[in-house]
Each structure stands twice: as structure tokens, then as C-alpha cells.
Amino acid sequence: MKIIMTDDWKTPKNKLPENIEINYGDLVKINRFENFWVIVTQIITTNKFVGVISNNLVFPTPYQIDDLVSFNRENIMYLRKSNTPNDYKCR
Q1: What's the CA gap between 36 and 55, in Å, rounded?
Q2: Which residues are registered as beta bridge partners of 89?
Q3: Closest-CA residue to 24 (of 43, 44, 9, 6)
Q4: Where are the domains of the chain?
Q5: Three-state DSSP state, 73
Q6: Predicted pLDDT at 63
Q7: Which one of 39, 45, 74, 80 has the fewest CB atoms closer than 10 angstroms to its CB?
């Protein structure tokens, strides 16, 4: 397992609204080379998170399933809440 920093990651045009809280265990889709799912494992601030990649990536990348990634709220394309049936998609 390695830790990947996301300082240069793409951000979606439409960002996740600030009033939507991100919690431990939430599943988020972020984008770097391709879209992939991450389970939130640490909340650094209300805008900065760490999580573990939860799916196999299709394209060759410097990371893989079970690697830790650091990402910002702006990197989130999709949010699936762990404690509710609500999904949020940035469009």
C-alpha cells in the first residue's frame, strides 16, 4: 500500500455543495487518469480527506486497489453516503 497525493488532480466543473457533509465510510468517486471509488478513512479538514481505493483500475496508473489517496472536496465527482440512501452527483 502506498499513499498518493492529489495536488495536481483534475476537479469537476460542478463541485460538491459545501453544505453536504462527508463522513468516515462514505464512498466517493474521484478522477485521476480515470474515475475510481475511494472509501473515506480520514477527515483532515472539511475540505481535505484520505481514503482507500476500493476498485481495480483499468488503465496503467501509479496506484492500485487498497492504496491510500489524499484528496480535496473539489476532486469529488460523486458521493454515496454510508449512513443514508442519498447519492450526490456533481453535474
Answers
A1: 7
A2: 78
A3: 43
A4: 3-84
A5: helix
A6: 80
A7: 45
Interior CA angle at 64 toward 32 and 55, to 5°? 85
From the candidate CATH numbers 2.60.40, 2.40.50, 2.30.30, 3.30.70, the one assigned to the domain spanning 3-84: 2.30.30
Residue written as cell 468517486? 29
pLDDT in tens, the chain (91 residues): 555 555 555 566 667 778 888 999 999 998 777 889 999 999 999 889 999 999 988 887 778 899 999 998 888 888 988 877 767 666 5
Distant-in-sequence, close-in-space partners of 8: CB < 8 Å, separation ≥ 6: none
Residue 53 identity: I
> Quick check: 14 and 75 in contact, CB under 8 A?
no
To which residue does cell 495536481 refer?
Answer: 8
